Amino acid sequence: MSFGVKRLFGTDGIRGMANRFPMNAEIAMQVGMATAKVLLARAGGTRRTHYPKPRILIGKDTRISCYMIEQALTSGICAMGADVLLTGPLPTPAIAFLVQNMRADAGIVVSASHNPYHDNGIKIFDHEGYKLPDKIEHQIEKIVWDSIAACARLGEEEPTDRPINETIGRTVRLEDAGGRYVVALKNSLPAGFHLQDVRLVVDCANGAAYKVAPMLFRELGAQVITRGCEPDGTNINKGVGALYPELAAGAVVEFGAKVGISLDGDADRLILSDETGAVVNGDQIMGICALELHREGKLAHDTVVSTPMSNMGLEVHLQKHGIQLLRANVGDRYVLEEMRKGGYSFGGEQSGHLIFGQHGSTGDGLLAALKVLEIMLRTGKPLSELKKQIPLFPQVREDVRVREKRAVEDIPQVQKLVQEAEKALNGRGRVFIRYSGTEPLVRVMLEGEDLKMIRQHAKKIAAAFAKAVGVDS
């Protein structure tokens, strides 16, 4: 039997329907064991603590399946002789921070981010709080498949490389994890910064930030109106959060708030609403923050790292201010890899992942919200005025659920329609097509100055995909 043909890791860790391959308890336990083995060997002599055993943090969001996956991972890690620190529900960026803050050897987040509750995922961070590169993920995959293959062979001897007796790992619940993260976020702000009498709407998507986000803004003095802060295990991202920013936008208008803050299920992405109830997307937030960093002289190499999904209008506008937009592969970990490689300090995605290299090692929705609020208070300008600084081209996107991810070149009708669209755009826009790394979807995105025209072309291309590889075709 060949196990190597199936990939576990996608663009953002492992993801799938809970209790189905690969997000079942059996695979999660093997991933826990393999992660401990690979990352502890990788850390090697760089361990920075006096603790006798390696320690791995595990955080999660609010999905009902997190209990199952968390415990399976814990079992695998302890079986390899490492201790586990459980944080309970916390944002993904909080785990990245805590790995460094507590000198842990690795961190794992059990979350499927913006996906519906029946999905789940596993994201892994190394001892410096960075998501794993492809090379390390492949090593973990190989160990998982080798271990499963060994278990399947009759007469296989018991593995002798596992600890026994007192060398088996323990599990400890980390009670102050949320408080540590909130303190770190406040420490990223200028001395004396406060939000006294500022009214905010905070939508936590019934996800991982449902406790820490309201706590953070209230401790800074804000009047906080909450939405999506009542998780029940099955309502994460359901009509709330960054996927549905109109909920917070409506509450902003209703209560006369300054800003609506919409997070996703693991709070690593942010969408805002201005005081008029208009939605401010990730590209606009990125542009606002980039201009401010550039003004402060803190935008390394006068460069912002983004992805092909970011709007051409953002690129054109930043260029006018002497700022280069560098495009990495889609996925915040690829943005971060490009930032580290080039020594850049800021990057992000249109979806709302914003990475401030000076303060964190992954996208952080709460940190990004604080930075925008900081700009608003410094300038005295409302968000509606700040976003006008970032004019965007009209952009449309069509998502098609597919049964297979076939290359565009292998679908003649799609290729023909793409060529027709590019000819019509005549260099004043673009066509961008990509398959999702976390869902069975193809995303068809077009930009151009004529909204009606690009919408027609996007629908035609999407329909061709649906006919060729759609789930109902």
With helices defined by DSSP (H or I, 4 residues minimum), what is the helix count? 14
Give the DSSP E fraction (strand runs of 2 or more residues). 15-25%
Using the coordinates shown, work out and report the CATH topology of the largest domain: Alpha-D-Glucose-1,6-Bisphosphate, Chain A, domain 3
Task: Give the averaged pLDDT, no decimals.
Answer: 93
CATH class of the largest domain: Alpha Beta
Number of strands: 19
Shape: globular
What is the CATH homology-level superfamily of the largest domain?
Alpha-D-Glucose-1,6-Bisphosphate, subunit A, domain 3
CATH architecture grouping of the largest domain: 3-Layer(aba) Sandwich
Tally of domains: 3
Uncertain segments are 1-5
N- and C-termini, Cα separation: 31 Å
Question: Using only CA atoms, what is the Rg?
Answer: 23 Å
Description:
- The protein is an alpha/beta fold and 473 residues long.
- The protein has helices at 25-43, 66-79, 92-101, 134-152, 177-187, 212-219, 246-255, 282-296, 312-320, 332-342, 365-379, 383-387, 412-425, 451-469; strands at residues 9-10, 13-17, 55-60, 83-89, 106-110, 119-125, 171-173, 199-203, 223-227, 259-263, 270-273, 279-280, 303-306, 324-327, 346-348, 354-356, 395-401, 429-435, 441-448.
- It has a seven-stranded mixed β-sheet with strand order 1-2-6-5-3-4-7, sandwiched between helices. The protein has a five-stranded mixed β-sheet with strand order 9-8-10-11-12, with helices on both faces.
- α5 (177-187) crosses α6 (212-219).
- The chain is globular.
- The protein starts with 8 loop residues before the first strand and ends with a helix.
- Mean pLDDT is 93; it is low at 1-5.
